[in-house]
Predict the 3D structure of the following.
Amino acid sequence: MNVSQLAENFLQALAAGLLTGSIYGLMCVGLSVIFGVMRVINFAHGDFMMLGMYVAFYAFGLLGLQVVFGAGAPYVAALLAAPVVFLAGVLVHRFLVSKVTGIRGSTLAAEGHYAQLILTLGVALVLQNGGLYLFGSAPVSIPTPLASSAWEVGPLHGDLVSVFVNQGQTVAAIIAIAVVAAFVVFMGRSQLGKSLRAAADNPEAATYMGIDVNRAHRLAFGLGVAITAVGGGLLASGTSFQPYVGLEYVIVMYAGVVLGGLGSVSGAFFGGLTIGLVQQMSTLFLPNQLQNTAIFVVFLAIVLLRPQGLFGRAVRRT
Amino acid sequence: MKRQIAIIGAFGLVYALVVAASEHSYYQLILTVVPVWAVMGLSWNLLSGYSGFVSFGHAAFFGLGAYFVALAQIQWGLSPWIGIPCAGVVGGLAGLVVGIPTFRLRGHYFALAMLAYPLALLYVFEWLGYQELALPMQRESPAAYMQFSDHRIYGWLALALMLAAMLLTVWVERSRFGMSLVAIREDEAAAEAAGIRTVGWKLRAITVSGAMAGIAGGFYAVVLLVVTPPAVFGMLVSAQALIVAMFGGVGTVWGAVIGAVVLVPLSEVLHAQLGDKIPGIQGVVYGIAIIAVILLAPEGVFWKVRDLLSRRIKPAPVTREPAGAAEVLPRPARAGGTGRVFEVEGLSKAFGGLQAVRDVSLHVERGEILGIIGPNGAGKTTLFNLLNGFIRPDRGSIRLEGRDVTGWHPYEICAAGVGRTFQVVRPFRRMSVHDNVVVGAYVGGQTGAQAHAVAEAALAHVGLSGESGRPAGQLSNKQLRLLEIARALAGKPRVLLLDETLAGLGATEVEEVIALVRKLAADGTTIVIIEHTMQAMVRLVDRFVVLNEGALLAQGQPAEITRNEAVIDAYLGRRWRTANA
């Protein structure tokens, strides 16, 4: 392998990493609302993402979006995942998660965390295996012409180095970044966003300020899973998936959120972006099957060495 | 204990008979799998149930055990009779290797990190090309390779493993091992301060737990004859271990067994009946079971039922023999009548920009009662945390009886003769008063009956003998303060650090505790006490050290200190001046 081929491989992985990383970043933003800000451990987060993928899949297949939106149909389908999964998240929070979180949960002290962790593990098992029943075990994906076409960037250096940028992934990454930007503005500026942050930050104090904390937590939980579901929907046109897909992404998302620093929504995006880069870069020197192993190793390294995240301030590891 | 072993034996006998009576090979398989998951649940319980460190990754140990047995038989022709014990060693080593870095984490970080290990291993084994390993059939001497045509034998073998795991659990629970783990679960920092070497016990727990899971995995491979990465490293393996234990109840030998006996057949039968129509029904059953448990009976079925029963039948009060209590607690050795216990030189500690302790030098004389006073935020508790090793100083040194103990761990400092109590009481709430103090008694190297006797003596000393059998969580504030003192005393300290021991007590209670502190001092224990109640302190202490904004403001006799202008300005206030003028 000569130098220019190495350079080409490197640039190719860099481009792929940035594109996948943007979508991972979006998914991490969703989790950061729940885990980073609200400090609720949602083990089922990956499975809500899976739900988003299937919603997008069926919306694409059944609603005839292609007639109206043409090549943009997979992305419209991905956005449609948001309201459906939002509703699912609100219901799960209302009837299950709220019993062990918020003000009620905080009285359980440390046990509150374990209760959340284990309760949402139960939710994850039900979603995964219920998904197996509803959706079947055969891997599916959203067929899109864009996913199989690419722009050629180059030749950059002589005639040898040129990078192919997947068109479908590029559109998905742009949408992901737009959603993240809109959400950051929403959380920072809007009245609702501020009250969500307040309720998440200190439920007790927020109650005294007249905020309906239970409602705020419910909305935040719904928003968190909905945002991640959009990310899932965007991934659904590039990769094939089955009902157990969520598990692989749970680690990806927690790694991103921790890397970005707990409590920082925009940090979570860059955390996810970094994880995407690591995953794609690892293909340069590791076999494809070990991509995820590389992520797990990175995740372990992060929580062990820099639990406050690369971009975050110090937080206690409790 | 004998009664418990008898019950376990009776249960084993009944189970063995049920296995003997089973005819259909399908039921024989279920009867074999139930104990396997019970062992997994007990393995999980040994680590997570007792120590409180929730593991989502027990599949790592299970899978390594399964793959070891399968590969050893395929590659080297090693019989599972030898392979399964070796799988225990593999699982135990894996536990140790995983534990060393991962125990730096707490709470949900620990749980998530544990999840990553089996998932990473899953991909590694797929990449290695072990997508499906089949154990070869042995036509000659099948029994030597644990292959039987009578499938009931697998059931009995599984039962034997489960009984062994149960007996191990009972032994752990009653020993110093189990007590230390529960103390860690209840309050890790307080456990360290009471002299428990927490890292060591946690590593032992995960090693033993990993070994149990490795054995379970190895046996599982023999039963199913086929090993695939998702079947042994998959999420459901870790989840099932956790769920059977939590369903039945953590922290008890019966929890995991109840969980396995109820949930495994239920999910298997549903899978057999509906599996073709509803794939994944097993996962749904486990998911719903754990959701229901968390919402309805978070303590688990065993404890719930026990509570319901004990409410109906008043249990006989637990009484322990206070025999010879007073003699067992020996006076702390007084190495010479005078001398310095603590010598602190230029101690400094900053948290971020906040200089909590600033260049403090002081000493503690042997046998004295030293009062530390100062306004809120003066660095009093930080000073204690430095003295007992909770935090390391940025600069400066601490000498204890001439030895440099700067940077020692809390349990080492405790073992060196320094006991402490906390500003906010930190009892092990769900342990009995007696057991709380037993944990403290382990420091001096006492074991078994001796530790229990020392604990009773310490309780008698502070006047809590009557509460010995109650859970610590039920005590009043004063009793909790006394309990903490007793826990510290059981370690036979030569120095006691008392952090606001009088806080929140009524006037008469204050007098009682002061009388106790005086008695301790008269017995030869050196006492350093932080307190705000000046009236009480002036009468109690021999000498004062005054801190302000982290720095030493003054030290001296009570009479000097209460007239010191700087102290009055910084701490006592104008009113003190006019009232005592």
In short: The CA atoms of residues 42 and 256 of chain B lie 6 Å apart.
